[in-house]
Amino acid sequence: MKPYLKENEWSIIEEGFDPAKHEISESIFSIGNGHMGQRANFEETYTGSSLQGSYMAGVYYPDKTRVGWWKNGYPEYFAKVLNSTNWIGLRIVIDGEELDLNELIVSDFVRELNMREGYLKRSFKAELTQGRQIRVTATRFVSIVQKEIGAIKYEVKPLNFSGTMEVTSYLDGDIKNTDANYDEKFWDPVNTYLKENRASVTVKTKKLDFHFCSTMETHIVKNGEVLDLEGIGKEGVKYAGVKYKAPLTENESITVYKYAANVTNRDHDTEQLETVSSKELNKAVEKGFNQLLSEQADAWKEKWLDSDIVIKGDVAAQQGIRFNIFQLNQTYSGEDARLNIGPKGFTGEKYGGSTYWDTEAYCLPFYLATAEERIPKNLLIYRHNHLEKARENARKLGFEKGALYPMVTMNGEESHNEWEITFEEIHRNGAIAYAIYNYVNYTGDKSYLGEYGIEVLAEISRFWEERVHFVPRKGVYMMLGVTGPNEYENNVNNNWYTNRIASWTLEYTLYVLDYLKDTNEGLYNEWIDKLKLQEEEMKKWVDIIDKMYYPEDKEEGVFLQQDGFLDKKLMTVNDLDSRHLPLNQNWSWDRILRSCFIKQADVLQGLFFLNHEFDIETKKRNFDFYEPMTVHESSLSPCVHSILACELGYKEKAYEMYLRTARLDLDNYNNDTEDGCHTTSMAGTWMSVVQGFGGMKVVNDQLVLNPFIPGQWDSFSFKIRFRGARLMIHVDQTNVIVTNETDKPVDIVILGDKYNLKGVSELKVSH
Ligand code: BGC
């Protein structure tokens, strides 16, 4: 499909209505605030193809797993974030004729996602029968200030007639997930009520007892006056609506304001939900739409101060990166350690809104550099809170000790739909350990290690200890029957990445234990007691570190993705006729699994994570060997390649890889944006700019920048928070300028030279 969105630095704009693109736009124009989010569905009735989607963070359902042949160890259920009460509904009937863009002639259609201020706006002209025309302008947002509030301003102007408009403002809780395994409905009714211009619907999940109450109030305004209209209420099962009849006068606007308070018993007492939502609603109504919207704009301004990336000389790139940052900030705001980041955010149902290793491997760096420390810390605490479940998970699979975190989870339990691919991807345990290192390395907050980190690290280490086995014949430890990050090979032996990240976890855990012993012996002893850590165990870890087997080919000078990799028929993606691509849509699973083609970074993922351990030549040889066989059929793949290519000086490759994710959803590159946006890969795109083009890393507590700028750009700049300072790094074709916006001085190494950047100052280095 040809790109259809207008390029603009701060907004996503669609001009003209094309029903064939509507579901793609519903994903792209989604709005969210960390607490809730929704697809860009129309407020009024739309009978064309659409995925009506409204999601409340953390409200999920354990849908029964669907498999053909049950095996021991399968997860009992597949968790999914629930599609919830539709609170935006406005049924508009004009002189008996329903407003439905699927039925009417539509012109002047413009849809805008304003990323600077955080709202969605749509305007259009529709032609009713007898040539009667109306103009509609609808603005909607979910507040990032009052998280439970959503507000709509819906303006209707009859252009060439006067008449009557009926508006039914409603809440509909009778909603179904499109991805339900057995086509079941997951919500039961609890209560509905109507009171003057208010209505409320409370529903609860059939399992787990999540309660969700949505309460709304509607005002209709003409000529600046709220009309005193008698609403006719209608209650149904999981439904409540109020119908108003208002006079339409030619060329005069009539505006419907709808406010909704959406609260759940995750945050409030079940018994109090109606009261709480009513109180929240009072606050919102008192402020009114304009004040709520201006608070929204101010709050977004603050977010952009921390996280904006400015690209000059390429509007499409500018729009792409801002879109990614906007979606990340809409998805996770970090106040609630019970929440995490689903691969599609609030933009669709694929992947069930669950937590994957994506969070630790891809998303954490964004929040580390753009938000207060407590926000990325909450992502780590989320896993700490799930430690007991991870221990149980390991027991379920037959391990005597240690913890195996799930590949897909909502509450700490494994909850995926598939077997080898997901189940055997035990490498995720390594990413969870690595995230602790990454957090401490970036923030310098070593207190985390003694507070929470060591417990998670020790339990993951114990898992690796039991999962490897010693092969006396060869004198090495091996790990058989795993799936590495490359999901196009399953059940392989000695995946290099998994072996390396496992052994690295043991090294890091021992380092942390030493650090605690040296700095706080009391605390060290407490952990040794609490974890019942034996001297023997630690010795065993050292032995594993010393004797871990890493498949390698000395001749090629590369690490082998797995034992049998070189026995495959080796080809490059360029050897394939393009009609074979993407492989996952054209080849049988059998053919994919035995081919050499790689879905996403695997060995290279290890070189990216443990970058400091390998010299440039090693990275180059492995990159040159694996990249040509990589089809990048996971959206998480190109960013890792782009960052490594930057380091290796492969400038064109770096830019080519960057382009593959930067506008992935805006240009519907993978032809699947209607399922939702690739939210977690957006964090990868951010990494490509900051860690790739910016060459930002932290080495031994030292901030390092090695920037290079793609020839296509005039300049780019990004913001980072670093240990109490906020820096803006600007790179143009000749200079790197670092501005310290705070009082805190920072030591920084730019292109190999060390500088001390004083508070509120600027440093210019040519490159
Ligand atoms: C990738 C996984 C990822 C998952 C969710 C899959 O396609 O291969 O690495 O965790 O998507 O984003």
From TrEMBL:
Glycoside hydrolase family 65 N-terminal domain segment(s): 13-266
Database matches in InterPro entries: 6-hairpin_glycosidase_sf, 6hp_glycosidase-like_sf, Gal_mutarotase_sf_dom, GH65_N, Glyco_hydro_65_C, Glyco_hydro_65_M, Glyco_hydro_65_N, Malt_Pase/Glycosyl_Hdrlase
Active site: 487
Binding-site residues for substrate, renumbered to this chain: 357-358, 599-600
GO molecular function: carbohydrate binding; glycosyltransferase activity; hydrolase activity, hydrolyzing O-glycosyl compounds
Family designation: Belongs to the glycosyl hydrolase 65 family.
A Gene Ontology biological process term: carbohydrate metabolic process
Domain Glycoside hydrolase family 65 central catalytic: 322-687
Protein name stated in the entry: Maltose phosphorylase
Organism: Salipaludibacillus aurantiacus
Domain of life: Bacteria
Residue ranges of domain Glycoside hydrolase family 65 C-terminal in the record: 696-757
